[in-house]
């Protein structure tokens, strides 16, 4: 059983992992310990760069022979864009490896066996839940080819995202909006429907904090997006790029009007609710999108719920009440006919941001 010190060290590794943006690779953090002290930390910053284990070894001041390595995810045991971490561990002379959780990748089995065969003491499962949470998006992508989908919205106390006229600026305060931009920075792509583009003309960039813009994704069956829309970045202030998913039969003149640098038009099957969301998610997954933030609107949220394609919700709740049955709700899907069948959130968290609250959790249908 892990000691309190070992849990504290693994928690430091978890925090290190959160510093990285390595999609489509998983977030991983590491810490090296000798004589009861942390001697270095490491994390996987970007795909193609050093993995967390190697980063920690490099960050150490001198030899790490005989040290203990704490790592949130099972070390890789294969040659990819970088060499196997198991070999780096052995070459460094590390005596003990403490692992948070196993790697879900099919190419990984053998890492623990490789280390133990060379006399390295290996322990598995320290802060396993916290470490697994770091790679829940990667796990889904590996197993399904789809990105991990988070539905994000700002709502009033009576569950509305806009007035009957479409006004939504601003439901929440500046602190909540800054947290939204942090979420964007942590996402590979951000998705909205064409209704949101027409109503709000969002740019979908990261502005309130220092960060990296996600790829912008628009669901637009008939290509109603204006060529001047902010999401297309006509001023070219971002290199994130924009993907517009449309039905194959969309008007050729509309396709020509929207053809611009950084904009890719992607045909997918259409249906009575718009475009085929499964085809959209497959295309995004194929492009290395592991974390997808869905910012609506109401119709889009409802479609993701109806199809069971949402993994998580992050809903900001403001202390405002519209009191209008015609105001726009969080989701307009087919819905359910009983509370028992309603979507519910598990592993929920509630955080305060100024006068607003953020309720987040994983979707589970009872």
Question: Key terms for this structure?
Answer:
366 residues; alpha/beta; nine-stranded mixed sheet; five-stranded mixed sheet; 27% helix; 27% strand; globular
> In this structure, how is the largest beta sheet organized?
9 strands, mixed
Q: Total number of helical segments?
A: 11
Helix content: 25-40%
- Poorly predicted segments: none
Write down the Rg.
23 Å
- Structural class by sheet pairing and helices: alpha/beta
Strand portion: 25-35%
SSE order, one letter for each helix or strand: HEEHEHEHEHHEEHEHEEHEEEHEHEEEE
Anisotropy-based shape: globular
Sheet with the most strands: spatial strand order: 11-10-9-8-14-6-15-18-17
The number of E-state strands comes to: 18
What does it look like?
The chain is of the alpha/beta class and 366 residues long. It is built from 11 helices and 18 strands. The protein has helices spanning 4-17, 52-59, 85-92, 111-117, 128-134, 136-144, 174-186, 194-200, 252-258, 277-286, 298-306, and strands at 29-34, 37-43, 68-73, 96-101, 121-124, 148-155, 160-162, 189-193, 215-219, 242-246, 263-267, 270-271, 274-275, 291-294, 312-317, 328-329, 343-353, 356-365. Helix 8 links the parallel strand 8 (189-193) and strand 9 (215-219). The longest helix is centred in the first third of the chain and has 14 residues, at 4-17. The two termini are 34 Å apart.
